[in-house]
From TrEMBL:
<feature type="domain" description="Transposase IS204/IS1001/IS1096/IS1165 helix-turn-helix">
    <location>
        <begin position="92"/>
        <end position="143"/>
    </location>
</feature>
<dbReference type="Pfam" id="PF13542">
    <property type="entry name" value="HTH_Tnp_ISL3"/>
</dbReference>
<dbReference type="InterPro" id="IPR002560">
    <property type="entry name" value="Transposase_DDE"/>
</dbReference>
<dbReference type="Pfam" id="PF01610">
    <property type="entry name" value="DDE_Tnp_ISL3"/>
</dbReference>
<dbReference type="InterPro" id="IPR032877">
    <property type="entry name" value="Transposase_HTH"/>
</dbReference>
<protein>
    <submittedName>
        <fullName>Transposase IS204/IS1001/IS1096/IS1165 family protein</fullName>
    </submittedName>
</protein>
<feature type="domain" description="Transposase IS204/IS1001/IS1096/IS1165 DDE">
    <location>
        <begin position="158"/>
        <end position="391"/>
    </location>
</feature>
<dbReference type="InterPro" id="IPR047951">
    <property type="entry name" value="Transpos_ISL3"/>
</dbReference>
Length: 408
């Protein structure tokens, strides 16, 4: 078996394709393998209708392939162009690369496999000895193709949240199918218009606004208005993690005010913010002492713990009675930070109570956001918002891809 036949087998070539020549050349320390592929004389190639057509002429093409040991490898071929039965001239699609790409399918599959295994695109480009923008072009092609094949038509419950491209920079908003636990659509921005963009994307897949029965969002006025316009029939559930976050901010304001007068409260922020079950034995002892010594702090902590019982209420009627009583106790306590929080609760009453019926939250989005944050840290931020959005789809969209699977 000669080297031409061996490389032809390694490349998976079948008739009429064959290895014509192999050249190993280059300067010292930078060797390259060049494999020239040809086709048998007199070969015919099928057009789009499947009709065998004769070769009209050829055009020279080159693709970067997987490295041969540590050496860069290129495939060369004079690709045939055929004249179809209708008289048009078409370039034949080669089996080892997709049209318009400068890489072989296996090269692209390895690049995508490395990205899938959480390697930053710039590092992939460095490892594979190409410009990073070329890897981004490959990456964006396959994500866009996966998106074209995606079908979000079964969505009924939607979660919406925002994240920044870099710290303090532009934002994107993600719409998540809460039942499928995946990103259905991501769009640039963080205002009311983002809900409209999500609705338009779903409409392009024949999802009517009335199909969305529930939406989970934070207390953003822009998101509230956006849901009202884009999905008027959907019931809003305010994410209870965001509500609890506001409650903890109120608790911390009370602690800070007490801290100004009592130095022994220094360093005990999380003693009051953590769930009691997560406190250390020493923190439990400190907490018991503080809520006894400082009545205002003790009252605030009791209200904080009591509020969280809301999420376990069995039905809406019970939840409303409980929450009304809690707000009355806040008014009686007269603690300004908690009165502000209670006013926020009253202003968003229906969406907060809705949780006991829908039992949905943005907890799934928090997991998705964690993946996005990890990707941002590995890449040291994304200057290109389009790249970040496609990375979100790649990591969190559960898309199906047609490139060859590459085992690393």
């Amino acid at each position: 078996m000669n080297s031409d036949t061996l490389f032809g087998m390694a490349l998976g070539l079948t008739s009429p394709w064959q290895v014509d020549s192999i050249d190993f050349s280059g300067t010292e320390g930078r060797q390259e393998l060049h494999i020239r592929i040809s086709f048998a004389r007199g070969s015919r190639f099928a057009d789009q209708s499947g009709e065998p057509c004769p070769v009209h002429d050829t055009v020279e093409r080159r693709w970067q392939h997987l490295n041969f040991f540590e050496h860069t490898c290129y495939l060369h071929c004079r690709v045939p162009r055929i004249r179809t039965g209708s008289g048009q001239v078409e370039t034949v699609a080669v089996p080892w690369a997709r049209p318009g790409s400068g890489f072989t399918l296996l090269f692209e599959a390895l690049a995508m496999a490395l990205i899938e295994r959480e390697m930053p695109v710039n590092r992939v480009a460095e490892l594979m000895r190409v410009n990073p923008q070329r890897i981004w072009t490959v990456f964006n092609h396959w994500v866009c193709e996966g998106r074209q094949q995606d079908d979000p038509s079964g969505i009924t419950r939607l979660g919406v949240d925002e994240t920044s491209t870099r710290k303090g920079h532009n934002y994107i908003t993600v719409g998540v199918d809460l039942d499928a636990r995946r990103v259905a659509h991501a769009t640039e921005g963080k205002g009311k218009e983002t809900l409209s963009q999500i609705q338009k994307h779903l409409a392009s897949h024949e999802v009517k606004p009335s199909q969305i029965t529930d939406v989970s969002i934070d207390l953003s006025p822009a998101f509230i208005a956006g849901v009202g316009e884009a999905f008027p029939d959907a019931a809003i559930t305010f994410d209870h993690f965001h509500v609890t976050q506001l409650l903890n901010k109120a608790m911390d304001k009370v602690r800070k005010l007490e801290r100004k007068e009592h130095a022994d409260l220094k360093g005990h922020k999380y003693t009051f913010l953590k769930n009691y079950d997560n406190l250390s034995e020493q923190q439990e002892q400190s907490l018991a002492e503080f809520i006894t010594l400082y009545p205002t702090l003790g009252t605030a902590y009791r209200l904080k713990v009591l509020f969280n019982d809301l999420w376990t209420m069995p039905d809406r009627k019970t939840a409303e009675a409980f929450l009304q009583q809690w707000c009355d106790e806040v008014d009686s306590a007269g603690i300004p930070a908690f009165q502000t929080f209670a006013n926020t609760v009253r202003a968003h009453w229906s969406g907060i109570i809705r949780f006991v019926e829908s039992h949905i939250s943005n907890g799934i989005l928090e997991g998705i956001n964690h993946k996005i944050q990890l990707a941002k840290r590995r890449a040291r931020g994304f200057r290109n918002t389009h790249n970040l959005i496609n990375m979100v789809y790649f990591l969190c969209g559960k898309l199906e891809f047609s490139y060859p699977r590459y085992s690393t």
